[in-house]
Amino acid sequence: MVNHVMPSSLKEALSCIQDGTYTLFAGGSDLMVQHRSPAQIPPYFDKNICYIAQLSELKYIKRDDDQIRIGAMTTLEEMLDSPLVPKLFKDVIKDIASPGIRYVATLGGNICNASPAGDTLVYLYAVDAKVCFESLNEKKILPIQDVIIGPRHTILKQSEMVTEIIIPQRHDQYQTWMKVGPRKADAISKVSCVGLAEIKDDIIVDFRIAWGAVYKTVLRKPEIEAHLIGINIKDIGMHIDDMLNRYDPWIQPIDDQRSTKIYRKKVAMNILQEFIETIGRR
Amino acid sequence: MKIKFTLNQKSIEHEANPSSRLLDVLRDEFHLKGTKEGCGEGECGACAILVDGHITHSCLVPLANVNNRSVTTIEGFRETSQYRILEEAMVEEGGSQCGICSPGMMLAAQSLLTKNSHPTEEDIRDALSGNLCRCTGYNMIIKAIIRASKRGEGLW
Predict the structure, then answer these.
(1) Which residue among A149, A279, B81, B91 is the one 20 to 30 A from A36 at the CA level?
(2) B98: exposed, middle or buried (Cβ count in 10 Å: 0-12, 13-18, 19+)
(3) Domain spans in chain A, listed from the N-terminal domain onward
(4) Is this structure's pTM higher than 0.90?
(5) Nearest to B21 by CA among B69, B45, B57
(6) Which of B21, B36, B41, B67 to mutate to test the interface with A (most CBs of A within 10 A)?
(7) How far does B48 lie from chain A, in Å, by closest CA?
(8) Is the Cβ pair A98, B130 closer than 8 Å?
(9) Are A51 and B18 an interchain contact pair (Cβ–Cβ within 8 Å)?
(10) pLDDT for position A183
């Protein structure tokens, strides 16, 4: 018999999950499909469930010096409505699903679902977002790339819950978001990408690129990005082949129902080339 | 487990498995058959309802997540003056043919107009992006919503 708990505070929720037997249930837009049963039969769960979507303590968006802090149960539509959420992040969110899903889907849920194609994750990796997670006795803050370790896997223990996402404010002159999918709404990405670049006096001072759906997690390689830092944008054309070659072994997409690895790889490489060329055309 | 919520303006206390799909509870327990099951995975919008006034796919919502919230189905929305304006506009523009998407389309329109009473065509296309229609090709529905937003000036 599965136990259902609807805690009314974060503390109550953390006490509830302390014994490690609970699945955390946020907006439900992934879990209700993953655990779907035939019509008229409740979705099948073999673990106890703790419903946290309505924890008001985890619904907020705040500015704190040069970072934005977002409570884990904030929905995607609430983020679109907030003047504090950066424009590029809103562009990403607008391309996710449809309003009916965005009103229930939460940012914390998208992180814990840990899909290699998770669209918010591509942005969060690119900007070096941090994830705060808590158990009853401990609170930890780690970079998002250290929290997600594989398809549908995070380092969180059963007694821990993501409570906050911390996003640094950035001022990149070049920002790109690209999502390749079969249609504009409701599509899970075949390939997605966020590119950021900051230029000072024609010199690249920061360059970042993160991809979704080309690797077992969202892919970002700061050690490769570093090869473009310090380069004059007039000379950037000479570095394109080198950058494509460096990324090549890391772009390892799969064949699945949404696309093929050949198509995904070609598109990922084209996006990289296009983004670097855009910076050079200034 | 008892779940308390407001359904079409009435306070409800319902004993059920909290992970039950709201869609099944509405159709089977409350006999509100205007809420349809199409795809069952949040892509078609046939099961759309309003939760606290916002469009939501009831196939993706466990009953637990509407505890203490307000749920409106097409049967409840039908009693409002906004509904009448939208219905008139849909009839005049030919926005409903077989009708299976219509409850979801009407509620998607209501969710949009509540937030944005003077939407652009692009706003409407985004608002309807989670609702599929296999008959009209959407343009008539979009025209109907534009017509309703003008005729219902001040209502939203």
Answers:
(1) A149
(2) exposed
(3) 4-168, 174-280
(4) yes
(5) B57
(6) B21
(7) 8
(8) yes
(9) yes
(10) 83
- Contact, B88 vs B144, CB < 8 A? no
Over residues A33-72, the pLDDT tens digits come to 999 999 889 999 999 999 999 999 999 999 999 999 999 9
CATH for A4-168 is: 3.30.465.10
**Using the beta-carbon criterion (under 8 Å), do B20 and A53 form an inter-chain contact?**
no
Q: Is some CB atom of chain B closer than 8 A to the CB atom of A109?
A: no
Yes or no, beta carbons of B54 and A77 under 8 Å apart = yes
Q: How many CB atoms lie within 10 A of CB B51?
A: 21
Nearest to A99 among B19, B21, B111 (CB): B111
Is-contact B48 B130, C-beta < 8 A? Answer: yes
In order of start, what are the domains of chain B with their CATH numbers?
2-77 (3.10.20.30), 81-151 (1.10.150.120)
Q: Which of A80, A91, A101 to mutate to test the interface with B (most CBs of B within 10 A)?
A: A101
ipTM of model: 0.97
What is the Cα–Cα distance from A84 to A69, expressed in whole angstroms? 10
Instruction: Name the nearest CA neighbour of A73 among A28, A114, A33, A42.
Output: A28
- What are the start-end ranges of the E strands in B26-153? 48-51, 54-57, 70-72
Burial readout A188-204 (b: 16 or more C-beta within 10 A, e: otherwise): bbbbbbbbbbbbeeeeb
How many angstroms separate the CA of residue B108 from the nearest CA in chain A?
8
Query: Using one digit for the tens of pLDDT, what is the confidence trace for B51-76?
Result: 999 999 999 999 999 999 999 999 99
The arrangement of secondary structure in A174-280, i.e. its CATH architecture, is 2-Layer Sandwich (3.30)
* pLDDT, tens only, B80-130: 999 999 999 999 999 999 999 999 999 999 999 999 999 999 999 999 999
A24–chain B Cβ distance below 8 A for any pair: no
Distance CA A21, CA A144 (A): 25
Contact across the interface for A185 and B130, Cβ inside 8 Å: yes
Are A51 and B59 a contacting pair at CB < 8 A?
no
The pLDDT score that the predictor gives to residue B77 is: 98
DSSP state of A108: H
pLDDT digits (tens, 9 = 90+) for A174-214: 999 999 998 888 889 999 999 999 999 999 999 999 999 99
